[in-house]
Input
Amino acid sequence: MLPSRFAAWLTLNRACNLRCDWCYAKMLNFSPKENMSMNTVKMAINLFKGLPLKNVILIGGEPTIHPNFLEIIALVKEAGLHPLLVTNSIRFTDKKFLKETIKAGITGITTSLKAADDEQYEKFTGKRVFSDVMEAISNINAEKIYNKISVTVCDGLFHDFERMLDAITKSGCQMFSLDMERPIIINGETSSPGKASPKEIAKFFVAAHPKIEACGIRFTVKISIPFCLFPTDFIEKMVAKNQIISGCQIFNGSGIIIDQKGRILPCNHFCDNPLGKIGTDFITAEEYIAFRNKPDIKDFYNTIKSCPHQNCVDCCQWKFCGGGCRIHWLHRTADELIGNP
Output
């Protein structure tokens, strides 16, 4: 059986109109040839209809530049599912395209904001598009569709974070989320574009939290490092206020991620470590459930959700924390990831 709360991610492409250094799509050099075929899209949607899920999250690369973007949204919607979008929103400076996206059936838009001005955007992404993105967010707000801003906080933003918060406040967004930069696996090796250690990341978020709360906008923080790196009272306060998102879907197998080639990934940061492939290992929902119950697949998920360190075994925060992102444990030493017991 699958978990009752289940979600799906469709990685429509690896192409993008930006070049963010921390992005997992760079493994394939953001290739414009790496688009999900419509045959794979249709197989995935037929599969999803038989699984215990409602939300289908469209991601990339940059999904809005997929040549069949609007058609894909419509197909998800026609299947009785909720298509959600994660995007850099550059294309939504075009109000007509935004309206077409909404008409096709998109039910929510998450805009990934990279920096607080054109200069920083160019530094982080290769393009001076801050003003364009803010215009796009304004257009989205005007359409009254559910939307939020997401920021991946890397060490390059540490010293400019107040201006980022100011940009978020001025955007008029309904809510925002802050994600911690995570390593990726490229060609069998772990890579972390940022220079900050997990302990430095924790220290930054503790210091920044009062300023984040002062924005007056509802927010969450996706914590991908062990909770023991933070003061206990800090974590307890954030948990009580529902400000924390932790425990990636990979821990309890509560999601299915299909990449542009139809491969099933443990998560998008395991870019080249597929577990199987739609159309080869399964087609129907029943076949997928049987696939998930194969001994080697069950062993993988059991290994992933096991405690990565002895200190985790008796930790009272384990059920919320999960030890953080598993690629951190592949990339760093235990001394870098374990705080005070």
Notes: The first strand starts at residue 6 and ends at 11. The radius of gyration is 20 Å. The domain at 6-337 is CATH 3.20.20.70 (TIM Barrel).
